[in-house]
Amino acid sequence: METQKIKKSKDAVVVSKSGDKSVVCQIDYKIKHPKYGKYIRRRTKLGVHDPQNQAAIGDRVEITECRPISKTKNWRLVKVLKKAVTE
């Protein structure tokens, strides 16, 4: 019997269009300093596969883990949660 691995899903913000069918997303989070107790801001940048080129810079998107698509891309765009406000 084969067990199926649960894939991670995260919300992120698009910070760059890095080419055709590719975007770079950023996840911001805070951690507590082990000694001083102050909260520190950290971020993770992930290469995301966007096959329909539907995400734009500033959009909030949902991404999920997938097989490696290239050297740096192993996340896939699920949907755009909120479009960026353009003035």
Can you lay out the helices and strands and say which pair or pack?
Layout: E1 9-19, E2 22-32, E3 39-49, E4 60-65, E5 73-82
Give the tags:
mainly beta, OB fold (Dihydrolipoamide Acetyltransferase, E2P)
What does this structure look like?
- The chain is mostly beta strands and 87 residues long.
- It has one domain (9-82): Beta Barrel (OB fold (Dihydrolipoamide Acetyltransferase, E2P)).
- Helix content is 0%, strand content 56%.
- It is built from no helices and five strands.
- The chain has strands at residues 9-19, 22-32, 39-49, 60-65, 73-82.
- The protein has a five-stranded mixed barrel.
- A hairpin with a 7-residue loop joins strand 4 (60-65) and strand 5 (73-82).
- It is globular, with a radius of gyration of 15 Å.
- The protein starts with 8 loop residues before the first strand and ends in a 5-residue tail after the last strand.
- The model has no long low-confidence stretch (mean pLDDT 93).
Radius of gyration: 15 Å
Shape: globular
The biggest sheet, with number of strands, parallel, antiparallel or mixed sense and barrel status, is: 5 strands, mixed, barrel
> How many extended strands?
5
Count, helices: 0
Structural class determined from secondary elements: mainly beta
Count of spatially separate domains: 1
Assign the CATH superfamily. Nucleic acid-binding proteins
Terminal residue distance: 54 Å
CATH class: Mainly Beta
Mean pLDDT: 93
CATH architecture: Beta Barrel
